[in-house]
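Much of what follows relies on a compact textual record of a protein's fold. Think of the row as the fold of the chain written in a discrete alphabet. An example makes this concrete, so a full record is given next.


***
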Amino acid sequence: MSFTRRTVTRYQVSDSSDALGALGCLGFMILMFAAWATHVVWVIGKLAGSAGVTGGQIVLGVLGSFVPPVGVIHGVMIWFGMGMG
């Protein structure tokens, strides 16, 4: 019984491609943080405003502040004009 040795071809990614991927990830993370910060500013504005807040706004504010994915989604919705509440 004979065994043959197989070699695996490895594809190398260029350094510029690595840098572009890292820059894209960093940009995405900054975008998500900005959306969450938008949500937090919305919460502060609602709580400091004289118009009053509803129970749903309070729940959304607290939940989005302590569970960042909820705040990020709400922040993006605010950017597109759908999450002003």
In short: The two ends are 74 Å apart (CA to CA). The CA atoms of residues 1 and 7 lie 20 Å apart. Residues 34-85 form one domain. The chain has a mean pLDDT of 87.
